[in-house]
Amino acid sequence: MSKAVKKARKPRPPKMIDHESTIAGAWEDGKSIIETLAESMREWADNMEEKFSQTQKYETVSTTADTLENIDVTIPDEFEGEENKKFIFKYQTFYLSPSKQRHRSRANQCADACEIWIALITYLDQIADDEKEYTKEERDAASQMSSDVQNAIDEAEGCEFPGMYG
């Protein structure tokens, strides 16, 4: 093999960041990403409104902003307050440098929030299934919240993020 032929490099696996959070904290971590996206989409829709309010793209951007703005879940009382410290779990997210984060697509940012919520659902389902460690009220609350978070994920994943030019 000649020196001119470069050896193929294996891509490095992405760096992961470990998080330790309460149930409410994990929900809020994902929600803050969604709120930032909603603000971005609303700003885009507002800037398009004057000249392009009759276009399909405006409708898509506006509908996505509306959907993202309305995503919310009520945290059950069982998971708030001092008892909350009983419900701490770990999850991981991808590490992206600030420059890479800036160039992340809206769809990928939405997927990041959903990944956090999927980890939350996994933990809530563990609570709902563990009769020995958790009370019936805690298990029921976990089951209900898991369903609510799944609905939030379904709404977020149903959003369309059109390209800037097409």
Tell me about this structure.
By secondary structure, the chain is mainly α. The protein has a domain at 18-73 and 103-157. Helices cover 57% and strands 8% of the residues. It is built from 5 helices and 2 strands, in the order βααβααα. The chain has a two-stranded antiparallel ribbon. α4 (106-129) runs antiparallel to α5 (136-157). The mean pLDDT is 86.
SSE topology sketch:
Blueprint: E1 16-22, H1 23-52, H2 56-69, E2 88-94, H3 98-102, H4 106-129, H5 136-157
Antiparallel strand pairs: 1-2
Helix pairs in contact: 1-2, 1-4, 4-5
Q: Specify the number of helices.
A: 5
Helical proportion? 55-70%
Q: Identify the overall geometry.
A: globular
Helix vs. strand class: mainly alpha
Largest sheet: 2 strands, antiparallel
Strand content: 5-15%
Mean pLDDT over the full residue set: 86
Low-confidence stretches: none
Number of strands: 2
What's the alpha carbon Rg, rounded to whole Å?
20 Å
Strand order of the largest sheet: 1-2
From the N-terminal CA to the C-terminal CA, the straight-line distance is 45 Å
Order of helices and strands: EHHEHHH
State the main characteristics.
166 residues; 57% helix; two-stranded antiparallel sheet; single chain; mainly alpha; 8% strand
